[in-house]
């Protein structure tokens, strides 16, 4: 993994509009913050080596190194990658399914991990009344259930992991999309001495990512059609539907 600093992160990623807003660079220093759906540099940082650059999923990636670090085997460049078992699942709890996007599997897995003591807290994603999403810590089933459902707006979820890992939590689970899972893998494989307390990360539930929209553009579009605080759910049906559904 290449080791550079915040200036290179700005020139190679932020200035080129390559940022996925995963949140991996936020909450580690006073320079980088999330503001209305984008990462903003508040001041110039002249450090030549920075976690912000190394952890970013848009900087150089050594897939063999990450696969060896995570799974103990070389990178498998096929459709499924490294798998132990493939199952079809849905939540058995009707209360979970009623809140979930579809089957509630992710919500059920996060709740089960908490109940079984595999994790003592989870980092999930939830949206406020302006449909602006952010990373949200959850320490009980009710808090996990409150984050059920899919978000289609890019969210700096890993900023919440960075904060949570500095606290008392010892076993953290994260639910994230591919860019966020990649950033967490880069944290674990980082050559830097400070790994962001990555040893506290005990579970990653990875999601597929179809759309992760820019907040400001989507908010402007929707505000002309419906009050944002009345929106309760989004959905994007599979092809060939070609629909973006908004539920109030």
UniProtKB/TrEMBL annotation:
Under which name does UniProt file this protein? 4Fe-4S ferredoxin-type domain-containing protein
* Residue ranges occupied by any 4Fe-4S ferredoxin-type domain in the UniProt entry: 10-38
Please give the Gene3D superfamilies that the UniProt record associates with this protein: 3.30.70.20
Q: Name one GO molecular function term.
A: oxidoreductase activity, acting on CH or CH2 groups, with an iron-sulfur protein as acceptor
Q: Which PANTHER family match?
A: 7-HYDROXYMETHYL CHLOROPHYLL A REDUCTASE, CHLOROPLASTIC
Q: InterPro entries annotated for this entry? A: 4Fe4S_Fe-S-bd, 4Fe4S_Fe_S_CS, Co_F420_Hydgase/DH_bsu_N, FRHB/FDHB/HCAR-like, FrhB_FdhB_C
| A Pfam family the protein falls into | FrhB_FdhB_C
Please tell me the species this chain comes from.
marine sediment metagenome
């Amino acid at each position: 993994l290449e080791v550079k600093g915040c200036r290179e992160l700005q020139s190679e990623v932020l200035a080129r509009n390559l940022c996925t807003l995963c949140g991996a660079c936020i909450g580690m220093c006073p320079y980088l913050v999330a503001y209305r759906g984008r990462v903003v540099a508040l001041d110039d940082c002249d450090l030549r080596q920075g976690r912000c650059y190394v952890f970013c999923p848009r900087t150089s990636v050594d897939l063999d190194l990450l696969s060896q670090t995570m799974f103990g085997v070389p990178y498998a460049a096929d459709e499924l990658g490294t798998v132990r078992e493939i199952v079809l699942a849905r939540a058995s709890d009707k209360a979970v399914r009623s809140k979930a996007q579809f089957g509630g599997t992710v919500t059920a897995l996060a709740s089960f991990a908490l109940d079984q003591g595999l994790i003592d807290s989870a980092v999930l994603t939830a949206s406020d009344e302006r449909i602006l999403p952010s990373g949200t810590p959850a320490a009980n089933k009710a808090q996990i259930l409150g984050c059920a459902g899919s978000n289609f707006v890019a969210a700096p979820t890993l900023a919440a992991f960075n904060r949570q890992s500095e606290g008392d939590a010892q076993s953290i689970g994260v639910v994230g999309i591919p860019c966020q899972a990649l950033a967490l893998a880069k944290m674990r494989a980082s050559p830097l001495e400070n790994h962001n307390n990555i040893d506290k990360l005990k579970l990653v539930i990875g999601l597929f990512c179809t759309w992760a929209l820019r907040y400001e553009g989507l908010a402007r579009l929707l505000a002309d059609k419906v009050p944002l605080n009345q929106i309760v759910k989004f959905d994007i049906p599979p092809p060939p539907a070609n629909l973006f559904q908004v539920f109030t």
